[in-house]
Amino acid sequence: MFPKDFLFGASMSGFQVEMGYAKGDLDPNTDWFVWVREPENLINSVVSGHLPEYGVGYWYNFPTIHKLAADFGMNVLRTNIEWSRIFPRPTYEVNVKVEQTESDITSVQIDERALRELDELADRDAVEHYREIFSDMRKRGLKVFVNLVHFTLPIWLHDPIAVHRRQQTDKLGWANKRSIVEFAKFAAYVVWKFDDLIDMYSTFNEPNIVSQMGYVMSISGFPPAIFDTEKFFASFVNQIVAHARAYDVMKTLTNKPVGLIYAASVYESTNSDVELEESVGQFMNFAFLDAINSGVLLFQTREDLAGKLDFLGLNYYTRTVIQRSAQELSFGLVNMNWSIVPGYGYSCQPGGFSRDGRPVSDFGWETYPEGLLKLLRTMNERYALPIYVTENGVADARDWLRPYHLVAHMYAVEKAVEEGLNVKGYLHWSIVDNYEWAKGYHMKFGLAETNYQTKSYNPRPSMYIFREIVKNLSTEKFRSYLSSPYQIWRQKG
């Protein structure tokens, strides 16, 4: 069973849900807002052609979604504060104390004067509106879990079109060290302005995905969609340092937990090649987290990065099946001697079955709930920190798979809790259908279906199952779903 104080809820992100209710909810000042309407991207189907301003409408319709969460047993919601809403204009002019070596930024200090100067630059209406949103959450008995950056950056910090076209620009996003200092300012300001309403913080959602999709997987639809290993490593390392510097300034202003949300997978080989699985997992799952936990950053140790995590948020969707490659590829600091095997994990035909006979989502992602338990065991042993499953869900417009997927993954979490693992919460992705980045509105991840015309949210059958599990603090009532009709859980013990 789950303990009584276990957190059950859902996760959202501002860009994906805020716009769509009325003209006043528009936020045109992000890199993604520009990216999804760029003609080159539209003509080449890099993006869906859907626009976020016709979306969920959470900015003004938040009470409806908060009520839905409370009605279905949730006690926590995660969302983010859009940096571009708070600071639509640059914050460069606000001077703060920065200590650095020849290669990196080791300290950022932000005093009361700097915070007051930031306050003069902030959009006061946006600040007050976010306060209304968080106050409404608390009024309904929902804990407020605030993430600071969920992919989007202010357009004054990242011009994805210029970077994509390899034009001269200093608006390089996370590939520019300047972003580290500006993020620390934003993080400090958020705590200074909202801490009385927030229960827990995370700095980033899936920073590894930002680097991988933006600078390696150039056909993914994520800005700036270029293949550039130098910028990949720059953005990867700069986000590590940005987290550490933000953590430092945030902890001078709050005693509340500050963590990070990471996209993790289980790496399994076709021939039980343990050496390959461990080496791939080391970089893909652990390199970023090791740096902000123990200070081990790739091939060096940095004390200024160590001990910067109060909890770990894990986003898990499926496994990744790999094999050794005949040719080794050089990525500068590391070499890649493996490739992904199609037909498993993220590389399946949508809506069918994987090569392993497991059901596959509308996105083409294999259902593999055992992987979540494996991941929780590994992360618990490696980091000894409180863990929250901060995203887990399935793209399923018909809700034919979601009931089984939901039960199996919540069973994995329940099993982890019963084993004594320090797992504190499960947040589903997501409470309502929303804007799925380059895929637009095609992918339906919501426990509730979003009617984009009426801005209403209709619970799917799986949402009632979620509520029953929360009510009973156990998946026991639905354990038959693990074996029928898909034999969705195959692990023994």
Structure at a glance:
The chain is α/β, with parallel strands linked by helices and 493 residues long. Helices cover 36% and strands 17% of the residues.
Task: Give keywords.
3-stranded mixed sheet; TIM Barrel; 493 residues; 15 helices; alpha/beta; single chain
Description of the molecule:
The chain is an alpha/beta fold. The chain has a single domain, classed as Glycosidases (TIM Barrel). 36% of the residues lie in helices and 17% in strands. The longest helix has 23 residues. It starts with 6 loop residues before the first strand and ends in a 21-residue tail after the last helix.
The radius of gyration is 21 Å
- How many strands, what sense, and barrel or not for the largest sheet? 8 strands, parallel, barrel
Number of helices: 15
> CA-to-CA gap between the ends?
16 Å
Number of strands: 17
CATH fold label: TIM Barrel
Count of folded domains: 1
β-strand amount: 15-25%
CATH architecture descriptor name: Alpha-Beta Barrel
- The share of residues in helices is 25-40%
SSE topology:
Blueprint: E1 7-11, H1 14-17, H2 31-35, H3 39-43, H4 58-71, E2 76-80, H5 83-86, E3 97-100, E4 105-109, H6 112-121, H7 124-139, E5 143-149, H8 160-164, H9 178-194, E6 200-205, H10 207-215, H11 229-251, E7 258-263, E8 267-269, H12 274-294, E9 296-297, E10 300-301, E11 312-315, E12 320-330, E13 335-340, H13 370-383, E14 387-391, H14 402-418, E15 423-428, E16 448-451, E17 456-459, H15 461-472
Parallel strand pairs: 1-2, 1-15, 2-5, 5-6, 6-7, 7-11, 8-12, 11-14, 14-15
Antiparallel strand pairs: 3-4, 9-10, 12-13, 16-17
Helix pairs in contact: 4-7, 6-9, 9-11, 10-11, 11-12, 13-14, 14-15
